[in-house]
Known about the structure:
The structure holds two protein chains of two kinds.
Chain A: H1 14-32, E1 36-39, H2 44-57, E2 66-70, H3 76-88, E3 93-97, H4 98-103, H5 119-130, E4 135-137, E5 154-157, E6 185-188, H6 196-206, E7 217-224, E8 227-230, E9 244-250, E10 261-263, H7 269-277, H8 283-287, H9 297-304
Parallel strand pairs in A: 1-2, 1-4, 2-3, 4-6
Antiparallel strand pairs in A: 5-6, 7-8, 7-9, 9-10
Chain B: E1 7-14, H1 21-31, H2 37-49, H3 65-70, E2 77-83, E3 86-92, H4 100-107, E4 112-118, H5 125-136, E5 141-147, H6 156-173, E6 177-182, H7 206-212, E7 225-228, E8 231-234, E9 240-245, E10 247-248, E11 251-252, E12 256-260, E13 264-273, E14 276-278, E15 280-281, E16 286-291, E17 302-304, E18 310-321, E19 327-328, E20 332-337, E21 340-354, E22 359-361, E23 365-366, E24 371-384, E25 395-399, E26 406-412
Parallel strand pairs in B: 1-3, 1-4, 4-5, 5-6
Antiparallel strand pairs in B: 2-3, 7-10, 7-17, 8-9, 9-16, 11-15, 12-13, 12-17, 13-14, 13-16, 18-24, 18-26, 19-23, 20-21, 20-25, 21-22, 21-24, 25-26
Amino acid sequence: MTTNTSQAPHMTDHLDLLESHAIFILREVVAECERPVLLFSGGKDSAVLLHLAAKAFAPQQLPFPVMHIDTGQNFPEVLEFRDRAAERISARLIVAKVQDTIDQNKVADPGPMGSRNRLQTITLLDAITDNNFDAAFGGARRDEDKARAKERILSFRDHFGQWDPRKQRPELWQLYQGKVNPGEHLRAFPLSDWTELDIWQYIEREEMDLPSIYFAHERDVVLRDNMWLAVGPFVEPRKTETVERLTVRFRTVGDANCTGAVISVAMTLSEIIDEVSVANVSERGATRADDRFSETAMEDRKREGYF
Amino acid sequence: MKPAHKDLLRLATVGSVDDGKSTLIGRLLVDTRQLFDDQLDAVAAASEKRGVGDLDLSFVTDGLRAEREQGITIDVAYRYATTPSRKFIIADCPGHEQYTRNMATGASTADLALVVLDVAHGLKEQSRRHLCIAALLGVRTIVAAVNKMDEVNWSESAYLGVVNEIEILAKELGFESVTSIPVSALLGDNVVEHSENTPWYTGPTVLHALETSEAGSWTTTHEGARLPIQWVLRQLGGGRTYAGMLNGSSLHVGDRIRLLPANIETTITAINSGSGPTDTATAGLSIDIALKADTDAGRGDMLATLPLPTITKDFEATICWFGDAPLHVGQRLRLKHTTKVTPVRVSAIGGVVDIATLSINETAFLSTNEIGIATLHTADSLVVDDYRDNRVTGSFVLIDEVTNATVAAGMVGRAAFL
């Protein structure tokens, strides 16, 4: 955490206001709900969320656990970061595994290379039920997708974990009200009003730690569906594909088999900010196969209970 | 491309269905290059699929399946735009009366309302209704885009006729700043670039009006400082600090401050913000403060400086009712005001607002989407300001005790025009 010990007057800027709003939401949900949890993927947005949560309750420890929905198809650098970040603030880490959901025959096994993207919704909803969570913080931002742009900061989920975009609770002023009946829960999105650029500027300002794959590095990749996929245990080159060794970085972090790399030489936060400032493709459009199923892929998944 | 110091402006679109609110926001985002190529491609593909031309700009914000099928906005879409001096949070609100609760959601935190009107139709009843709600919600600055100028052959007299209507209503509703602009959201005239089709118009474009607006933040309207306590933080080595989001005027270490409703005066000995210890905190910041006096302050209490708010259990309020069943006298609900939640009962209903005439008519109940005046009685004392003085400490929501649904937006007191 950056501590500003200088007493010079500080002009409030948009990052201060976004930070303050997020901290306000974190405190409000903790005060209103019985058993919150913070969903932590190890990506940059959830890293910012965890950082803000630590600030909101400092010097006390987090008043809720941190949960990772582990698809088993993660980048190893991200898992290392997950453990390091949780340990740094002594947070209690719960890991809910999609593999367990598969082993319990709740969903069909898509095979070692198949996408587990949609399956993780089942694992997530089961983990929320099993732990009696009534609120789950997520790092989703409204600028990521047109369905997310429509979602409330405190978003109600029914007994089936479903989001009904036609029946959202009015959310007036900053009067976030988080009461739900047993079996229902809330998703809370403190970073709703942040953009990708805000996230990177904040990470730079706060000198935050991140998984190394966000920074440019050399990697074996194949071009598939117009995306550079990292060759590894979850992506085997097909006969028609040529493996190339390129300098790349990741703009988002999802499963290794549906997250594309971007060609980049940005090795520092300031270089990444320069790159993001002039990007002409959105982060999910550039790098996420899971959003390409249909026009309303995100809305459809959110209705089922996705993040 | 180093980010310079930016401030934040929250705006909400206001106006009737089909007057072009979503199209204007789409145009604004496209012409200021806030949209990525793949997002534009997706809008183009969706437009083709639904047979609505090459690029239906309303699809930039109307992202839900049902919205695209019906060609309407159902719920608020939040979009973001950045210029060298400002970050904008744009709430694109629905125009239909049945989605009033969603419009109120978008406008409740707006610093500025971007009113969109069809020049051929002028102020429709629903536009009046939206402007009235925006005024009730405390918005004081409006930018009025008089849209579809291309459909009236860029007629200055048609434009001036609508401007006249807006200005009469704006005066009635007490808006402090009104900027009218002739635009074609479809073609982009006077949205980001000045139009050659309106040589008689010399005022700002929509973008310029938004960039230079001095509307100010919705949380800084009041003279006194207000810190509703959200959470008590126990400090290492003993002692407590009181956390919350500051609104109204600034606070400084050494300021005298009063804990309410206990009514204990004490002194601020330390202030912490997200960036660490500080001498001064301004509105909109989440802070925690240490006090000289040892108190039992907790969540739901308020720290305030002069002029002090009112401590009350019985008060008159303006209510926007969203419940499916009517609100009636004697009804019991839950009320959330700042960080305090308390049971509440409706003591009296003083009337329902007739939007067309801005008069108040007698009624026994408020139906869905009606606005009325009610007297409320709370179980616990509230520490309130009149809504006109402070949009944070003057606002509350009513909650259904069984379903936990938010069923009303409430504002302490009543607007001067009612």
